[in-house]
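Budget justification aside, the reviewers requested a transparent look at the raw inputs and outputs of the sequence design task funded under Objective 1. We therefore reproduce one unedited record. The lines immediately below are the structure tokens for a 307-residue chain.
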């Protein structure tokens, strides 16, 4: 395998995530280079990617060059063991009581923006399976973008004591809300177990009878417009639009909150293929930091300058 090259921002992000104060020789010698998982994600050009490996708040760093840093709210627990094996990067734990991450609105987080759809990827660890929710048939929104009058998309998780025991769904709504187009899987879950959840939102709207939402668990397609009629935009006359609501991790619109872990959240300005999603799920290796980084060199380009 060739040597790993970091941009200056990626190096400083690693320093901050490691809880270090300066990128000097002694500090850099303890940093682990990006894992294969990290490299696979960035190779697919996400518009934002939050590793959630900070030692403390208030800033949740965006690992891309796009600067979509978020802000921690409430009392998240840092330095949780992360979802990626053989990776020193950590995760966060949320307590279900107004703990979440908020990122300012960007049109790049919206399904219509690119004309090529949208993919949202996250590692989720439910720590409890029975919990109160937003309705008498309890569920929470554990990640999403949307508020009253400007709903967009989100992930939902049902309590084990609901009529849809521990169903995990991905939805796309009209701005006014109401029923959304959604794909889902419904498995026997174990508390404290990480899972890789990916939602793909096709480009288009209700005028395309084939367009809709797909959801993957651990690299495997579990629900799609082809297998679940409710996943089709046409079914609920969905015409998605960009709204000004922020993106939130751990909640959608502050009405319900996740009790559990979150790690490695990424957003892509297109629909990833099944092969690309499996590629990310399977990426588990890591490589140590080379001597050029320990000496303070950030991976020079052809001109010899750091990026």
């Amino acid at each position: 395998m060739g040597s790993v090259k970091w941009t200056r921002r990626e190096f400083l992000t690693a320093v901050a995530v490691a809880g270090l104060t300066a990128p000097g020789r002694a500090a850099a010698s303890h940093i682990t280079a990006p894992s294969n998982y990290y490299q696979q994600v960035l190779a697919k050009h996400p518009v934002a990617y939050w590793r959630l490996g900070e030692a403390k708040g208030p800033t949740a760093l965006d690992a891309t060059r796009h600067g979509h840093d978020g802000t921690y709210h409430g009392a998240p627990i840092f330095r949780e063991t992360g979802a990626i094996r053989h990776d020193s990067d950590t995760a966060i734990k949320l307590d279900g009581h107004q703990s979440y991450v908020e990122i300012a609105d960007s049109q790049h987080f919206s399904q219509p923006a690119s004309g090529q759809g949208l993919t949202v990827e996250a590692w989720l660890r439910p720590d409890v399976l029975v919990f109160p929710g937003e309705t008498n048939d309890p569920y929470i929104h554990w990640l999403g973008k949307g508020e009253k009058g400007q709903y967009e998309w989100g992930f939902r998780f049902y309590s084990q004591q609901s009529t849809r025991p521990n169903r995990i769904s991905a939805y796309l709504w009209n701005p006014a809300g109401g029923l959304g187009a959604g794909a889902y899987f419904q498995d026997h879950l174990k508390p404290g177990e990480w899972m890789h959840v990916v939602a793909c939102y096709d480009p288009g709207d209700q005028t395309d009878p084939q367009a809709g939402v797909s959801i993957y668990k651990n690299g495997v397609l579990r629900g799609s417009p082809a297998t679940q009629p409710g996943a089709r935009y046409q079914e609920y006359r969905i015409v998605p639009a960009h709204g000004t609501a922020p993106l939130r991790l751990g909640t959608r619109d502050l009405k319900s909150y996740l009790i559990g872990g979150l790690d490695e959240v990424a957003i892509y300005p297109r629909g990833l293929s099944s092969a690309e999603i499996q590629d990310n799920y399977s990426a588990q290796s890591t490589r140590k930091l080379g001597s050029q980084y320990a000496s303070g060199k950030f991976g020079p380009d052809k001109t010899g300058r750091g990026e």
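The longest strand covers residues 259-268. Residues 1-33+287-307 form one domain. Computational costs for records of this kind are itemized in the attached budget.
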